[in-house]
Prior knowledge:
Blueprint: E1 3-8, H1 26-41, E2 42-53, H2 58-68, E3 72-76, E4 87-93, H3 100-118, H4 122-130, H5 134-165
Parallel strand pairs: 1-2
Antiparallel strand pairs: 2-4, 3-4
Amino acid sequence: MEFDLVLADGQVLRTHPRLSYxxxxxxxxxxxxxxxxxxxxxxxxxxxxVLLHRIDSWRSxxxxxxxxxxxxxxxxxxxTGHAIRTSFYLVARNIxxxxxxxxxxxxxxxxxxxxxxxxxxxxxxxxxxxxxxDDMVNDVMDTFGPTLARLAVPVFSIQVAALRRAPFMGGNTxxxxxxxxxxxxxxxxxxxx
Length: 193
């Protein structure tokens, strides 16, 4: 059975009971299993929505880059609710699930799931999912960097605006004046826009 829309927004919760040896790999296991199921069940031309965290993390960048090879991607960050958090949604439209890059992605995600579920090297697999060589990062940034920057600005803008309004930042009382300037310092330079 194929679907026009597939959501992959499950996440490991702090209250989710699990054995201690699963702490470091459960998030990767859940994400990869959702991605495999989503890509195997989405209709050609359909849409997949994936919940991600930390747009600047290697895992998120690599996943956006992967989806960009076989779909049209955009990002969505709600302006309420979790606006101050690092979560955002990858919306991949016009999916081509039979494209070679999509088939390669599914095979890689299956291997990641298998390694983190059945093999003993769980911690190294988790680290491998979150790290990359300089050459790999340079290759991704050369081809995907400008797109990533274009996609990330609205997400960061929503988060910055929400943080400025957050009660723990002192609200509009002036206590937080200067904390959210470019570069994350009190520098008197231009504000992030």
